[in-house]
Inverse folding.
């Protein structure tokens, strides 16, 4: 009997924390999303069913933000995966000072996202930014480039800034994955005549897939949830807003908690679909 | 199978919990610290009570001033310094959960409409004498109720660089917006100033308010009585901005840099003309901030055929939250903080511009406020451009306005299209109210 209760007792704190901090807000947010609830109309709070979702899904603003989100997601995931993997290869060296290299490599990950955005705004500021000064100094351009002045260049910059922040985690995960592969497998493959390409394709990549899965999932969530960098680079401009900025504006700027909660739920739904996809395709059993 | 399902469930939980960071859930979750502050302050009250004050750094009284207030009233003030941008969010999240973020809070003029509609502010008693001496009070009044008392004055005043005018051979200060435009063209053509007009065009609040006071001072009206935009006036102001952009009289960097950066160009001489905050009176005489000291002259805002007869105020005030449990003490504090004596003291300690015209006049007359130019004269022209007070949908309206202007500045649409976009949105908001 004692043995049956103990595991539940040990799990209880975590269940409580998850319940209060994760599941309760999720359920509460869903209930808000079914209400007409604008804070500036406190006398008119009522149940409206799925009307908020219908309004959001037929709004041009939401789909504009959604397309921006997908663009950022695609760029961030591809670049983070490729560059993170390459960085992990560079870090997988057994030389003096490897620890320092690792510490430098994870520095962008440690930066608060807003600071990250501000930092890059100095670089790409339209008038007196570092990049314009460098390019003018090198004689490559005569007039400053308005890096933040068009939708796609702004989104590309946001994606690069987020990628810069996401690479260290991906590199660390890949490094851990690479170092967990037994050296014996490589030795055996080499004895069997395997070349570098074959070894990478048949040993390294399959055994690292679960680790890549974690890294890609994290990069995807980061790309969907990017907020601070967008605000730092372009404020609440329509130009570069993603669905999270849309959610923030609707909820906290325009004080429409009902519609804002619906947008939030759609963000979660989108993230959930991606999560299922990644977990199904990448989180496979690995056998040595 | 069980393990696979469990691992999928846990993995999804992780993703959803990360995504839940953007949850619009009950906002009271964000404010336990603030609520705790309020409770602690109440508990500490022993004689005259204790209140909490949430304001940005520039509004914090000195320790001596607070000690003086405690001695006078017996009320202790617990200061909670919060960045201006965050105060509204904190107020919103706390009030949505029925909590007081603090007893006395900063209230920006642009928040008045929504805070009133949400019933988050306690009406204040202000004497007719004070109301008459404080024209910016009108901005904080809805349906005859005073919701906050302005403590820091900010109204639109124009500035131009006199030396650049001399260098370009322009003799007189501009009287009309058309003269400003013509003079800017002359300054550019003669190579005196490349981008003479400082104009915020980034997608932010300052861009909307600039359009409002441009239309207001140009044509005397921004909104119709029903709250919709006045087409003739606003479109004319937009076309004026478009003309400045097309003729390259505005720095291209103003399209994406912050509004304050655009304003500050006049302090370095990279802009010649600005219509902006009254704080530039002191900035233009501050060696640390201005490299063209002695060249910037504050003047009356231009109008259509002569100087404008109205100007717009954008003041900040202090209000008492509806959920406060120390309302009487909070009201006493506001009365003390906005009194004539304190306005003089706050000008000395925090460089706050007085909201009482009598105090402002005194400080200008005795030379405390230097290089005042037309500051006093302009203060007497303050009239709110909002026929029924600041509307509850102000934030959404401003968002639509600054985004349309920004798109026009970036060449995505012309003035007519930008106007059509903002007109449609404002009409929709008016209808929904």
């Amino acid at each position: 009997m004692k043995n049956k209760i103990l595991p539940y007792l040990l799990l209880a704190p975590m269940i409580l924390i998850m319940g209060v901090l994760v599941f309760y807000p999720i359920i509460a947010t869903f209930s808000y999303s079914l209400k007409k609830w604008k804070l500036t109309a406190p006398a008119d709070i009522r149940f409206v069913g799925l009307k908020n979702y219908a309004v959001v899904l037929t709004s041009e603003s939401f789909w504009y933000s959604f397309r921006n989100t997908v663009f950022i997601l695609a760029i961030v995931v591809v670049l983070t995966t490729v560059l993170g993997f390459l960085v992990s290869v560079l870090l997988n060296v057994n030389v003096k000072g490897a620890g320092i290299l690792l510490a430098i490599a994870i520095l962008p990950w440690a930066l608060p996202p807003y600071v990250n955005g501000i930092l890059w705004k100095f670089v790409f500021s339209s008038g007196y930014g570092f990049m314009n000064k460098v390019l003018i100094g090198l004689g490559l351009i005569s007039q400053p480039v308005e890096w933040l002045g068009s939708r796609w260049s702004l989104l590309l910059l946001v994606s690069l800034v987020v990628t810069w922040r996401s690479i260290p985690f991906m590199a660390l995960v890949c490094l851990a994955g690479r170092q967990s592969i037994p050296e014996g497998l490589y030795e055996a493959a080499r004895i069997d005549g395997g070349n570098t390409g074959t070894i990478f394709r048949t040993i390294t990549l399959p055994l690292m897939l679960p680790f890549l899965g974690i890294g890609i999932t994290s990069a995807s969530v980061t790309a969907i949830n990017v907020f601070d960098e967008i605000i730092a680079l372009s404020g609440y401009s329509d130009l570069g807003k993603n669905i999270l900025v849309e959610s923030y504006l609707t909820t906290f700027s325009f004080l429409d908690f009902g519609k804002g909660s619906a947008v939030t739920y759609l963000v979660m739904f989108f993230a959930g679909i991606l999560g299922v996809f990644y977990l199904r395709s990448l989180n496979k059993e690995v056998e040595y | 199978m069980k393990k696979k399902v469990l691992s999928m469930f846990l993995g999804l939980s992780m993703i959803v919990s990360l995504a839940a960071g953007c949850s619009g859930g009950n906002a009271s979750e964000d404010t336990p610290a603030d609520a705790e502050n309020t409770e602690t302050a109440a508990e500490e009250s022993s004689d005259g009570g204790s209140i909490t004050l949430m304001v940005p750094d520039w509004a914090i009284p000195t320790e001596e001033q607070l000690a003086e207030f405690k001695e006078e009233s017996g009320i202790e003030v617990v200061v909670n310094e919060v960045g201006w941008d965050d105060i509204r969010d904190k107020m919103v999240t706390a009030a949505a959960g029925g909590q007081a973020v603090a007893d006395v809070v900063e209230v920006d003029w642009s928040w008045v409409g929504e805070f009133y509609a949400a019933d988050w502010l306690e009406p204040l008693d202000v004497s007719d004498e004070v109301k008459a001496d404080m024209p910016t009070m009108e901005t904080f009044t809805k349906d005859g109720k005073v919701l906050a008392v302005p403590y820091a004055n900010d109204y639109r005043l124009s500035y131009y660089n006199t030396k650049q005018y001399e260098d370009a051979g322009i003799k007189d200060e501009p009287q009309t917006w058309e003269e400003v435009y013509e003079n800017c063209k002359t300054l550019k053509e003669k190579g005196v100033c490349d981008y003479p007009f400082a104009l915020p065009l980034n997608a932010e609040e300052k861009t909307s308010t600039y359009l409002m006071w441009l239309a207001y001072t140009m044509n005397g009206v921004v909104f119709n009585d029903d709250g919709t935009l006045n087409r003739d006036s606003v479109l004319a102001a937009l076309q004026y901005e478009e003309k400045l952009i097309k003729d390259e009289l505005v720095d291209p960097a103003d399209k994406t840099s912050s509004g304050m950066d655009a304003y500050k160009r006049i302090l370095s001489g990279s802009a010649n003309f600005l219509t902006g905050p009254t704080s530039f009176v002191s900035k233009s005489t501050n060696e640390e901030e201005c490299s063209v000291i002695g060249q910037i002259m504050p003047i009356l805002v231009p109008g259509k055929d002569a100087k404008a007869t109205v100007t717009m105020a954008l003041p900040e005030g202090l209000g008492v939250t509806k959920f406060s449990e120390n309302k009487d003490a909070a009201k006493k504090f506001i009365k003390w903080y906005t009194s004539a004596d304190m306005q003089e003291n706050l000008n000395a300690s925090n460089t706050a511009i007085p909201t009482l015209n009598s105090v402002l006049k005194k400080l200008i007359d005795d030379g405390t406020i230097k290089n005042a130019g037309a500051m006093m004269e302009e203060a007497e022209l303050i009239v709110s451009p909002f026929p029924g007070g600041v509307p509850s949908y102000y934030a959404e309206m401003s968002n639509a306005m600054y985004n349309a202007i920004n798109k026009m500045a970036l060449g995505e649409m012309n003035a007519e299209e930008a106007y059509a976009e903002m007109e449609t949105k404002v009409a929709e908001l008016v209808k929904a109210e």
Summary: The beta strands of chain A are 35-36, 46-47. Residues 2-33 of chain A form the longest helix (32 residues). The mean pLDDT of chain A is 89.
